[in-house]
Amino acid sequence: MTSPPATANQSVIEQLTRLDSQRLRAYRENLAFYRGQQWPAQARRRERRLVFNYARAMIDKTASYLTAGMSCVVDEEDGTQEARERARQAEKALRQVYEANNLAQLDFDAEIDASILGDGAFKVTWDPDERRIRVSSPDVQGLFAWWLGDDVTRLWRVASRYYLSDEEATLLYGEAVPRRTQRHGGRAGVPVAKQHSVVEVWTREEFELWFDGGLLDAKPNPYGFIPFVIFANLREPHQFWGVSDIEAVREPVRELNRALSQLSMILELSGNPVAVLENVTEAQDIAVAPGAVWELPERARAYLLDLLQGGGVGLHGDYVQMIYRTLHDLGESPRTAFGESRGLSGVALNIELDPLLKKIQRKRLLRDAAIRRRNELVLRLLEQYTGVSYAPYRSRVVWGPLLPPDRSRLVGDETRLVQAGIHSRRRAANELGVADPETEFERWREERALLVAEEEDDA
Predict the structure, then answer these.
(1) Which helix (H) or strand (E) holds 216?
(2) How much is the CA Rg of the chain, to the nearest whole Å?
(3) What is the pLDDT of residues 35-92, one digit of tens each?
(4) 210: exposed, middle or buried (C-beta count within 10 Å: 0-12, 13-18, 19+)?
(5) Which residues pair with residue 72 across a beta bridge?
């Protein structure tokens, strides 16, 4: 593939200001909704606006369920000692990158982002100064992707746009950064602190760096692959970009806010009664207080308006409960997930939480592919810069249990599976959540050797 002409590349940079405008607008709206801006703009300004941010609670809770106890392992390609050693080496390398980049926190943050916006991303690069892998989660609001035809899995170009201050730009690019000076107001020639627009354009063959609309650097791609993994939160068929969790609960949350705000106002007014005067043209010194005496003209009538008569509050409460149920149904987050315990356990608890479990399982299908691809990029970069072979770059994601496990039963099941030759010791350790099975096994062997030695000395 030959490099396209500069004018073609310039058109790509210019198109970013107009590209995917609907997607970027949806990102901003979803992010604002997550932060609590949930009332329609046309709502009257003077009315009470309570916000019960169930959207945020559901997203945070789902992310906690999904990422809890997640780990990655590398299985050997075959039963040879060489394949086994290579798998252990690759798994150790992934674990070191995981710890150096604090990927437990990064994965949780990326999951929150994906749930709010509808899409998430990872970026895997090599840090030449520290000589290590850097894994980050770039803001998808600055990412643009191009794929081949109707195959949304074949990315051929990715552009990443972000902004830097003068100081940040100098730290990253040194004196190559063009300086801007004041022309209007103040002394001429004084540097102006501003945000700079930076765009990275990646293909498998080429890398270009654009700074404030000008080409700052262009060279062959040093990695040989696009270092981004872009994944959807929940995907619609044949669509590259995903769907936010907020879309399902937007209207129920708004209606819940409106209904509870209205009910709150009714209860407040009922606690501060409204005095109604009939056939009275003027009213002075009319006070609602214990022992108050009102002097009314003939044929006049006075009473306190009872907003709670006729069971009106009960009707509002019933309506709120209907919205509440709709919210949990559409959000696939049963009340049990919020700690409402009814003494359920075992199969009954599983059935009660089934909507949430199914939602998380759908998400894990997409996250599994994204994390395995991220691991592949990590191993390929390590192989390129350290010379150690990690091919065929295979890994497997081990997800934590969705429900509180009966650990004693799980240990018993794995013990029987190991004894029957169905599971290996290492597979059993992975299922039980042991972070480093090989190290734990070596420690067990050392302890066992010490015990045997002590028994022989005693004998």
Answers:
(1) strand 214-220
(2) 31
(3) 999 998 765 566 788 999 999 999 999 999 899 888 898 988 887 888 888 988 999 9
(4) buried
(5) 397
Do both 189 and 326 map to the same domain? Answer: no
**Beta 132-136 vs 119-127: how paired, if at all?**
antiparallel
Least confident of 62-66, 172-176, 241-245: 172-176
Higher pLDDT, 292 or 59: 59
Within a domain: residue 398? no
Instruction: Give residue 4's pLDDT.
Output: 41
**Cα torsion at 298, 304, 309, 315 (round to 10°)?**
130
Same domain, 239 and 143: yes
This model's pTM is above 0.90: no
Q: Are 228 and 123 in contact (CB under 8 A)?
A: yes
Same domain, 316 and 196: no
**Count of domains in the chain?**
3
Residues 199 and 259 in one domain: no
The whole-number pLDDT of residue 146 equals 94
SS percent in the chain: helix, strand, coil, step 5: 50, 15, 35
**CB crowding 247-259: b at 16 or more within 10 Å, else e:** ebbbebbbbbbbb
Distances, alpha carbon 21 to alpha carbons 18, 25, 144, in Å = 6, 6, 11
Asked if 299 and 238 sit in the same domain, the reply is no
Q: What's the pLDDT tens digit per position in 340-363?
A: 766 666 677 778 888 898 999 999
Do 346 and 420 reside in the same domain of the chain?
no
Mean pLDDT across 383-388:
92
Q: Strands 151-164, 143-148: parallel, antiparallel or unpaired by DSSP?
A: antiparallel
pLDDT of 456? 75
CA gap 82, 412 in Å, rounded? 32
